[in-house]
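Handout, section B. The chain below has 504 residues.
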Amino acid sequence: MRRNKWHGSHQYGWHDSQRRHHPRRYRGHNRHTSREWNQRPDPDASESGLNEQNNSAPESTNSTSVSPDVPELPGFYYDRKKDRYFRLLPGHNNCNPLTWESIRKMEMEEKRLEMLEEDAKAKPVVRMGLDLTRLLQKRDSGLMKPASCSRFIQELKVSGMRKNKLDTRSLDSSIQSSFQMILADTNVERIFAAITDKTGYKYGILNLAGHRRESQLISVDMCDNLYSTHRKGTAACWASLSGRDSHVLLCLSGNADVPGCISLLPASIFSNSNSADHLSMLCNFRSSTVWTCAWCFNPQADKCFSTGLLYRVFVTDAVTGQKQIFNTNSSVLAQQFAHRAPVLYNGCRSGEIFSLDIRQRMTKALSWAGTIISQNSAVTSIRLLQDENYLMAADMIGKIKLWDLRTTRCVQQYEGHHNECAYLPIHPHEEEGILLAVGQDCYTRIWSLHDGTILRTIPSPHSISKDSIPSIVFSSQLGGRGGVPGLLMAVCHDLYHFPYNSNN
């Protein structure tokens, strides 16, 4: 016993021993420094008119849970509310062991609840206290530049977004279902949804309806037929085979016994349970691992789609079934076709982003690859802007960059996104000049598309976990032409609408 006691004193040292028994005596050493840093003015505070909670992103989950004015002790956790240390070793805390992971989750949940409470109390704020009417008057009278007026209106709209829970009575309430993914069609009239429950995975279509003149809310109607399977959908996109958005291209993951597959499903099978189309899934071919897919809307490659696989890219004609195979140096995780030319852009696990013209025949070498740029990590999402000289890409370390494809240079970065290992899409909306993305920490962030400033950070309505990452759709016309502008969020078994307007 004496040997163990002496060894413990020698291990921690005299100073550490004193800190353990008298933590308050040493707490004031860094308190002045901490306050000094906290009271420093934010250089960006004068340039933003949003609330403080909207401008600041949540703290990184990788930081330690100990307050900066409290010494960190190995094997101990300091509880700020109880003002004491607790052991992190199992079996020494009333059979309720603490771990850094559980502590981090607890602090993240406290942060989320605080932000939800602040959002509920906050009111729309714009710089200089201007409202929409005064902004337009100043712009029309020449007292304000159009660009500044547009930014102020943008801030006013974003700060006024408040969540409204939508009625989803068409979903079976007896089944504990959860949304995994939602994807809007071209006119944002229908939403393709991936749903999971205890029995497996189900896929269906939600019909949206709403008119901004009658009401700022939208109605959601679930189609009566769901496509069920035991395999998870890794990616999906709308396809225009027999008409605009007539089909859904769905990539399903595989396992040790059943390989993954790519299915082209008619949209009619989700609304008509007796349709014969349910038995005729076009282009249902198998592959080892399917990561992503994209549909080509260029007339020169009509009715063609691509799939990103392990070290390969498939380009398939949906009518004839003819395939082109392009070998790559890395797995392709993200794809998108250009509209002006049949050019396919691919984001790889290695971080490379390259383009290929599908009019060229396959070659053994990579001579067909062009416009090669590189991110810092595996690329999870790429989006071409309307000016197809610019491409936006996000990777697995949370970096979102805007690239100029003519010079292959990064022209803008969007800080604050959180990602470690998840496949998370990005949603640029050029009409409103904003960028939206959901992080792995379950926060939805909105940036200014032009200068990269964070305009709003929206906490998840549900507890933070890997299985409850929200999926979003943003449009200025939810429900079709003349629809309601706003953000549609699917998280767990609920749907929420955040109206995007300046009339709040």
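Note. The chain has a mean pLDDT of 76. Compare this with the example in section A.
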